[in-house]
Structure prediction request, 213 residues.
Amino acid sequence: MKYILLGAGLAMLPFAATAQVSLSGGAAVATSYDLTTDSNSEADYPLSFYLQAETNGFYGQLWFGTLPGGSAPDKVEMDVILGYGTELSSGLGIDLSYSAYFLDDSGYDEAEVIAAISYGLSDSLSGSLAVGYLVESEDSYIEAGVDYALTGDWSLQALLGTDSSDVIYYELGVTYAISDEVAFNILYEDDDTTGNDGLITFTMSYDFSLSGN
Prediction:
């Protein structure tokens, strides 16, 4: 299952100005390198794909991701996401979502509720705060993140979070927008677990609009 997406979750909440239905989608391929074992590693989701429909702030998304070999017998995760996002006159963005996670062999796995706010601090800097609750495991977490645009093509991301087990984790990322649709991201993830040196993930993504604005 996915926590708030670094970068995308900070400044691209699905706000809408009209009742027109917008359809969009995307795909991504990822690979990871485990710094703890100094070896190549499968990413959490080596291949992923999503489709989203949005109208007047309300949105629904279907997300599919292949799972690493260690997740057998499950090979694919499917997420069903429903939410609402809007931007207040003050510029404060608000997003509320409910997600249900399913595995191809095991079936229903977990549900998650996320409340997030975001705010553009300047033309190049935005920040976010998100609180999430996992329904079945009764776990919760809180995350704060920033996204800084270096240029029109390059941006930096940072995220700091903690969960109900008092584990502190963080992410540092850099993204290069190859075009309006294609982007390359390098993400470093780590936490305060003893002996963990972190994980680096390389992701190439393609996002597209099918209709609407």
